[in-house]
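Recap from last week: sequence in, structure out.
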Amino acid sequence: MDKGLDINFRSTSDGWRGKLADNFTFSNLYSLSSAISTYLLKDVKKNKIILGYDTRFMSEEFVKYLADTFSDFGINSTIIEDYCPTPLLTFSTKEYRFPIGLNITASHNPPYDNGIKIRMSYGGTPHSDVVKQIETYIKSPVKNNGEKINKGSISTIDPRKDYFSHIQNQINIEKHGKKCRVLIDPMYGTTSGLLKNALIGIENLSVNYIHDSIDPYFGGINPEPKYESTTELQKIIKKGNYNFGIAHDGDGDRIVVVLPNVGYLSPHDVSTLLVLYLGKYKKMKGKVVGSSTLGRKIRMVTLDLGLEFQEIPVGFKNATDIMLNENVLLTAEENGGIGFGFNMPERDATLAAALLIEAEINIKGGLKKLYKEVEDIAGKSGFCRYNFEPRTNRFELFKKIIENKGSYFDFGQTENVSLLDGIKIYFHNGDWLSIRLSGTEDILRIYCESDSRKTAVELKDYALRIIRRLEK
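Predicted structure tokens:
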């Protein structure tokens, strides 16, 4: 096997990603694991690591290969038994005091992708300098000068019992409360059965699943919870046999919700419901942090509660330091990643789901009442996101888009323009349009919010026509 230290994975905000049999290969994994070994031994001065893997093609084989490689470098590897959501890997890294945890996963991305997410001992994503330092060892590995290395051990662990106790300690569901039936769509990913087992023993609670078998093709779609990928869940919930439905992504750090008589709730809605519940009903305090592409509802509800709202660029790593150093109630991304300051500086869709169940049972009127309260404060809104694949150089195209602060986009009277992350144009009527370069794919991401999803889609279509003209 070629063990040359050359690698062409794509760096992400918290690790690396590639395509199976193209650049995500055993040879490249060797290069990366040798660099991580060097980082552990030289910079961290520790010789242990914890590993997890998802339901994708070859993930279990890849994690075993990583453990063997780490062993060759004298690193002791602990592998989490069975398919592992990233929040479980993060919890385990912190709970059992590992300097680093790695999860073999490509999250919500296409079936033929795979990747590695890094988590640190504090229970969160790595700082960018950690990723850069590891990458320097890929390009220039440290040699052992012929020194004999004692092989590292390889063991397994099942942290689920501890994780389930951790989840139950974060919630307070009333005893003898109303009956609650919840339907979960794990999208053939790692969260199958997780919430049901985490909340086992809670009275009058029934948790059922669809799409909970193992399918590396993810039913023919990317395992990303959004409006278009949850149509079956929406149809079932509409019949009224469940209090609500939940969908997670492939590695369990994103969440969307479906309510009977309301329908699909975007991540913007879900994070806002949780802010209102935690702030109003649980009397919890702290700053609310949101990505620049998050909708307006969460800001309006946060301010109505008398709390501070801070906007940050896209990427949960931008929230990690804030969560570590400040009193944060909740951090949210428009893609459905939600983290809680009382937990860890990390997204956890299972904890978010448990808190939604708590709200449904403890509040008279449940999530439907909570949703009505949000609309009383912030009004109605709808959201649309679109991934645009340019036919020309995307960087040159993006330069044209932000020329004169997006003056091409005269959908309405412009109130403000932000260049915090890409370009975000606020219109006088409260609508907004955001366009940014993806950090992980060769695309432009387009985000729109209006008073309804229909109008948001119209705004997206209008923006697309202008972008296509600028391509020529």
